[in-house]
Amino acid sequence: MQIFSFLYCFVFFSFFLTPRPELAEAYFILWRLTGDTKYQERAWELTLAVYAHCRTANGGYTDHPDVNSLTAERNDFQGKHILAGLFKYLYLTFSSPDTSLLPLDRWIFTSQAQPLPICGTNGLDLYSRELCSAEPTTFCSEEKWPSKSERLACRRSFVRNMTREAFSVYRKYAWGAPAVKPNFRVPAYGVNFLFPGATIVGAMSTLWTMGLRREWRAGRQWITKQLHSAAFTENVRTVDLVTNYLGGLLSAYFLSGEEVFLNRSLELMYGVLEPAAFSPSTGMLVRQFVPRTGQTSPNDTTNYISFIGFQQPELILLANLTTDKSRSQKIAKRLLQVRRLLVEKSWQSNSSGLFLDQLNLTSGEPVGSEVSLDNAAYLYNALNSYIQLGRGDGALLQLYTDAVNASLRAGMFRLVASGSENNSTNTMVVLSLDAATGKEAKVGMTDFHCQLGGMLALGARELLLVNSSLYRMHLQLAVELAETCYQEATATRTGLMPQHFWLKDPRVAARGVLE
Fold first, then answer.
1. Residue 444 main-chain phi, psi, to 5 deg
2. To bridge 356 with a disulfide, which of 57, 287, 366, 454 should be the other Cys (CB 3.0-4.6 Å)?
3. Considering the entire predicted model, what is its pTM?
4. Phi, psi of 127 (to 5 degrees)
């Protein structure tokens, strides 16, 4: 198997940035799995870029409207992902390779960066094998900190301080709201973003990881007193309830062992999600609904496979932790039903071996023929669920591997040459396809594609553990994707990742890259 090069002109078309955690996640995973210190250095470059170009005068961190402008007026929205994922991944990247802090052989990280335990590996009674089934102000310069261990400690403290000040701004001006506008010092709301305390729940595992105990206690108090099923009164996007709320609460439970977080998880599942969040005929997660009334929009007849609950690690945990066996079995049966539908309808219904993007919630039939990896949470969930369940369900690893290989055969991953013929550099890009024709739907990438580097690196580790010769190719893909995202970030004037970037004027017709 070999990856070939093709020549393209690679340019930016979108300059907006949301300081999301996907690139930081890829750096963290690749650092932990390869030990290559370049990923620590790149994570530090990202840290300084976020500090320099996203930090507000009040200490919050916002979106950046133009990554190629040093003077553009910044937006005023500090999303929950900054505290839930970005700072946590940066902090963990500056840990030692042999650290006992959330090691990857004992923890998985969900799509919302929440650490959940791998069954039977943590020495915890909370998830034993028997439950398995389904501060410094300096910028940490080498001159001031000549020792590598001292520099890493300095960098951890730097990110810890960034986290503390971002949480402080949220706590002071928007406590209990979904997010904060740090410039105007008011709560922030948005479309599909009306969830109470979303920033608090998302940040809990980050606060615990960094030892920010005062902030942790404040968050725990709010969750204990304010987060109840009755608080969810507005229209919500279902996948966010599962990944942000269930994931955040379960992660806080396993990190601390405090029962309040488990109790809130069960209340959320059976008081909010269970009555209306699942399609009665297919068991798939609906796109959105109103918890107070249980109503779903009549126009929401489809959902993306990334959002419909394919082997969702959060739901697997709840199935194993629920003492009511009838409820536990209901979750488990629904997961198997959705898994079967995805394989039969989204995967086997076309000859490409690719998963189609959208399904009808009532029939499970595919809607359209587009295939993309813009948000490959369904693959990441399959891989994480395989690991989380103690690697006992080999069919999940096979499904994940087959899907990645089908994407390769179809030409969705391309290692291309960008620049002039005399001065070109290799660039990995990810394409979307029309499965019916095999033609490209769009040629380009988003910041979400940077998360694929971390996913593929973890998948390569699992392939190595089962003695698959494919692990080298999957690891190479991970490294190349991380390299692309790094190069595109450093090509901007701010050093921040653009939200979208894609190819223009292909000089050579694109072909499949796997032989």
1. 170, -175
2. 366
3. 0.85
4. -150, 65
